[in-house]
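Why run this: before we spend reagent on co-expression, it is cheaper to look at a predicted model of the complex and decide which construct boundaries make sense. The entries below are exactly what would go into the expression plan.
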Amino acid sequence: MANRILSLSNALVSNPTSDVVIDGKAYNTETEPKQVLLRERANASFDVRELTHYLNGGPENTAITERIMTSIERDPLFHNDDFYDLSKDQLRAQTFARVAALSRYIDPEKQALTNQRFSIVGIADTSVVTRAGVHFGLFLRSIRTNGTDEQYKYWVNQGATTLKRFYGCFGMTEMGHGSNVQGLETTATFDPETDEFVIDTPHLGATKWWIGGAAHSATHSVVFARLISNGKDYGTKPFVVQLRSIPDFSLQPGVAIGDIGKKMGRDGIDNGWIQFTHVRIPRSNLLQRYVKVDAKGNVTQPPAAQQLGYAALVDGRVTMVNDSFQSSKRFLTIALRYAAVRRQFGSDPKDKGETRILDYPHHQRRLLPRLALTYAMNAAAFSVSELQTEAANALKNVDVTDKAAFKAAIDESKELFSVSAGLKAFTTWATSATIDECRQACGGHGYSGYSGFGQGYNDWVVMCTWEGDNNVLTLSTGRSLIQSNLAIRKRNANSTTKIPNAIAYLVRSEQLKGVKLGGRSLTDPKVLVEAWESIAASTINHATDAYERELAKNGGNVELAFETVSQRRFEAATVHTKLYLVASFVNRIEATATPAVKSILTDLAVLLGLWLLEADLAKFLQCGFITTEQSETVSDLVDSYNAKIRTQAIPLTDAFNLSDYFINSGLGNYDGDVYNHYFSRVVRRSADGSTSSNKKDARPEYFERITSKFLFRED
Amino acid sequence: MANRILSLSNALVSNPTSDVVIDGKAYNTETEPKQVLLRERANASFDVRELTHYLNGGPENTAITERIMTSIERDPLFHNDDFYDLSKDQLRAQTFARVAALSRYIDPEKQALTNQRFSIVGIADTSVVTRAGVHFGLFLRSIRTNGTDEQYKYWVNQGATTLKRFYGCFGMTEMGHGSNVQGLETTATFDPETDEFVIDTPHLGATKWWIGGAAHSATHSVVFARLISNGKDYGTKPFVVQLRSIPDFSLQPGVAIGDIGKKMGRDGIDNGWIQFTHVRIPRSNLLQRYVKVDAKGNVTQPPAAQQLGYAALVDGRVTMVNDSFQSSKRFLTIALRYAAVRRQFGSDPKDKGETRILDYPHHQRRLLPRLALTYAMNAAAFSVSELQTEAANALKNVDVTDKAAFKAAIDESKELFSVSAGLKAFTTWATSATIDECRQACGGHGYSGYSGFGQGYNDWVVMCTWEGDNNVLTLSTGRSLIQSNLAIRKRNANSTTKIPNAIAYLVRSEQLKGVKLGGRSLTDPKVLVEAWESIAASTINHATDAYERELAKNGGNVELAFETVSQRRFEAATVHTKLYLVASFVNRIEATATPAVKSILTDLAVLLGLWLLEADLAKFLQCGFITTEQSETVSDLVDSYNAKIRTQAIPLTDAFNLSDYFINSGLGNYDGDVYNHYFSRVVRRSADGSTSSNKKDARPEYFERITSKFLFRED
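The model came back. Tokens follow.
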């Protein structure tokens, strides 16, 4: 017997696939990974801490970020060990408790700090941020921007900033209308007899739908409804409507609310539907900064009041560029750490055993350009956020009755609208694709609930739909690019009107048309930016020409012409946004990167520019920027930059500075000890009774009821 | 008061967005959709029933399909009204009950009928099919193909075909090894003293992982382990190991099993992990068709025995091409019906009110080429299935000791391996993208659990990873294309060796190099097939050249050369697979379409060919098949074919012949009454108590515990 055990151990030791020698010591599949990550980190060519500061916008911001992270991570209420096993109902309850905790940190006067905390909490639990954001972002902001100063004060006194005896939701979307807010069908009919508005849901399609906070939390809602006075329809306006009585929480008369139920993700958010049956509210509940109704039902509103009313949504879009960065960095950290330690197939002459999958050129292609994109999204988030601050300042104190001043402020916002729409769409889509690619890059284990990818994807992808559907937004950016380009074409050469920075290159369209790569190198960041300017200008000009052709053909029907060229609009917006990403990354490196990190960041920028160029190669060939022969080398250049970045991949994920708490994945811990962490998560979940299956019984709970009756049947 | 109500109703009637007039009658958002689908169907230009027969492969198959569908739909056990609200544990139990019901229909001798039933059940519930498939597909098939006839008979006598006192699982994948089966680390060491094998898990990384059926169901497993005899490692072989005792279901000594827990999807499958600690099995439990071990531990095996051992996996890949068709057709039906009735923005001169979203050219682009692709996948599924039958017949009675005959049979299988690997990867990826696009095309409602997309996506995407990771498979097809191309290049011009059909065009490489579009039309299916042949030949030849350059450069290291050109391998395989799809669609139309449906099918084939060409435009420009000027027209051609197909979109989904039961979505019912169906699903789910939230109380269940304590706090 002893003999037999001995011979079996010998057999085990001789198993060639389980032995890998690192620095003279033998490791197997289980014991090797930690050693591998140590070696990866020893090869860092740059200062990791310095790169973290670059990403945060300076060491002071790193300190603030880390303080916020620590406060969340330490709070037992935010512990996420069981996160992937919670039911919808458990998530709903936990999320509200977290919203309550989070709300104590929020000072509406310190928006930047609130945004920062939300952005960080969102990495660990997206539902909490959305559920709190519905009140603090959508509800409160629309009271502030659409209400008069007195109205804002009034609702603050009711508890709107402290969440005391008050919780707001945002009643915009209806079953039949999402993107087209002007088409909403809920009515608010003024009744001069009682000085009230009557809010009504005329039919099923007008039911308010997806309203976050409505199902379980809200006492009040901003309701978007058609203002009807003296038989005339004035379009969609915001009204404050009380939904539940305080404090017993029963529904107000005429208010019907239900739970939307199961969603693809974000089950922590209590989305609900609301139907109003002739619900009466005082006239003063119309938010009256931009529209006024007097006691007789006379309505006055300034021109372009509509646009201003939806300004709250633009903030969300800007935030989502940064969210894209935050989310991408988490999932890439998991997939890259896993890829650095996972071995499969092949033979690496330096090590015994199989090849680590990150050493395969194809695997590098799947992940490393997306790592470069993530760094670029960080730069773009800073850039669009500056744009937002400028636009907000311009609008802040504008006198809406001064036509000229009002138009100037609106114009100032247009660049922000166009840039943020295109970026929101591109970055949220790119992040969906990144999460999916990262999951697949972890093979079967990526499909495990405890890798975090499934829940992460399901929670994320709604970002592509809400606050402006990505397709609608991209087409709208395309439309605005054609309009701007037409204006630039008609512009007098001596004009001094300011052209927004983001489209300034369109003024140089003629010059860019002749630009060729020639003998220059595609790995020069300046050449890459020019390449993207040239292709963006060419695509937008082609779209503009096509639009004008259609317009001439159809007798001046603007809407029809824009629809007919929708594919060109879509392409124009996408290429323009890619240019914005590449250029803002290159500019930010130039402006803020210290010598210790400049070289690695430049490599990332070049990789991104090349990778995007490769995907749009046909356009570069069509406009003659590169020749067919030059085009044949692009893929090899991408490969070579991937090989370069590969050596720095682990330090580049370390610079993201996410602790294991925020990573929350069996596959992505800092120490790289993948198999042990993953196994202990799986065993813990199936053993502690929080899932009923298995536990310490090899028979399922339905054994007598189903299994035994079938497998051990008599007939 | 009466007056007030009257004036309110007037206001309502005058709301411009709620009135749409069809044939003189006014409808609103809620009442219109049913009318719209009636009009869409009246416009069908082809015989819908005839097209259903085409898709099924003749009216006889339609009859069989419909009988199977009816038998499932009528069975109360298969009712899916609550499908999207079930917990993991509920799904596990329901799935096993359904497996038991399904198994009564299975006759292992009637494989085609079994496949057909599985394929149909899989549209409604993917987990059931997988859970049953693990036993009937993987376990049973590996006993039959790897075991001798006597071994197969033995296990059948134990209950392996009737599932009586027996349930099998497939113990291949380990924590540390998925794709590389040769690298598995579980050991099976022969002990001549007792004439037994000792199965052992040497360390954590060798734990069997993802084993469907292991957690709750299996009494036995085929375990893939390294055969070690007299100190020598013979590589991975299959052994039958008993896991649980019968009938008490407790674990056998030395067997440890746990539940894998939460997954991204398919929670109805009881995936488990297994660790063996010196588990002893009789020598006869080694499946010995291709490998034999005598009582002294002498091992004999024919050459290439390895390849034959994994043949079971190829069947799965072939099936998954058809699964891709089945799944895509379901989700496209939902998204297209919704798009036909949903209005948003714009203005259609024919109707009052907003534009139906399917009338937007951009929306057509998102869905209609994917509809064409779905029809093409149907044709490709038939084609690869024929290939499979031929290859199986060749292998069936081969004498493994006859070297020449054995090699011929293996060669016959190579085409099947290469084609099915590329197709499995392409079609399962395409289907993931289709489900995602369909979800986004339904806007916010696509994110509702009751639309079916979320669960559908989560259940589907594992198809891209299991039974051959899509990236690994695509690269392997690329490798085999380069190898075949090298053989063709070296081939004597007078050789009579048969070239497999799928790569026959490579023989014409030189001729295809010179082919240009010239004055011909890209809307001619024959021209499109030639275009794709030309581009595939060019891509494969470029890849082959690059491989030979690398080989020369690195001194003949084949593995290194293949890795270095992996991006080119990937491209070669993808383009080759696109050609296969376009060509098999065109061929099938030619061979089987009746005049009543040939025209619409041809339009679909052209749309597909053009849409794929547009995405690969750079390649067509690089090889000179089209000029820059010609390339500018491709997008407009795609647009015009989309506009053509749009008029037939609803009849084209009707031809898929899926009842509301199989659609199982609030948005996709046959009658188009979207808002009512969707609303009633949501209300029913939140009212019947199967979800604890809301019910008939406006307060959540955690109101006292969390909400009230926070909102109505005293401090």
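The first strand of chain B starts at residue 20 and ends at 22. Chain B has 26 helices and 13 strands. Bring this page to Monday's planning discussion.
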